[in-house]
Amino acid sequence: VIERQTGQLARLVDDLLDVSRITRGKLRMKGEAMDLNVAVHRALESSRPLIDARRQSLELDLAEHPLPVHGDMTRITQVIVNVLNNAAKYTPEGGRIEIESAQDDDECVVRVGDNGMGIPPYFLERVFDLFAQGERTLDRSEGGLGIGLTLARRIVALHGGAIVARSEGVGRGAEFEVRLPRLEVDLADLREAS
Fold it and tell me: Considering the entire predicted model, what is its pTM?
């Protein structure tokens, strides 16, 4: 228990420091040609224990070809982990999480959807605000502190992209979509780098 709590506290402090660094323009990112699908797979490795512990089904529909973007692999993976962890936290035990990646014209896209508790319409835009939290109920007591999605939006913006939240309302699930500019690069070079 102490080890788990210490790990959660360390992640919280790291997230707060990252938000502070972004706010002050001090967050360092390595820019390189990368395959967005590799970031998705790395994020899945990190989030899988939470998803498995909640016995949630995971459906993957990833692009069969590389999705080249220019970015920091660690930070983009962090964004996807934050979105996946939110999906797992706000989806009931035995629920469903879907991950899709695709190319959409000049953008590469990752969508994470779930059949969880959903987001009220008035809260859709606020969900990215620092320390914003939806209503807590007894059956949903393990929500976050409202830092992860703020951090995700700011990291994606630093990469020239956007992240949006969609939901048809409470009890109807949610979808988060990350869009990043597609990088024109020789795909053979990208495969070697990943």
Answer: 0.81
Residue 34, C-beta contacts closer than 8 angstroms, at least 6 positions apart: 68, 69, 70, 71, 73, 76, 190, 193, 194
Scan for tokens 């323009």, then name that residue: 25
Token pair listed for 166: 């969609």
C-alpha distance from residue 149 to each of 64, 68, 102 (Å):
28, 23, 22
Query: How far is the C-alpha of 34 from the C-alpha of 43, rounded, in Å?
Result: 14
SS3 call for 105? coil
Mean pLDDT of 125-132: 75
Span 40-58, pLDDT tens digits: 999 999 999 999 999 999 9
Q: Which helix (H) or strand (E) holds 104?
A: strand 96-104
The closest of 113, 117, 112, 111 to 92, measured between CA atoms, is: 117
H helix or E strand, kind and range, residue 179:
strand 174-181
Structural contact between residues 27 and 158, judged by C-beta atoms closer than 8 angstroms: yes
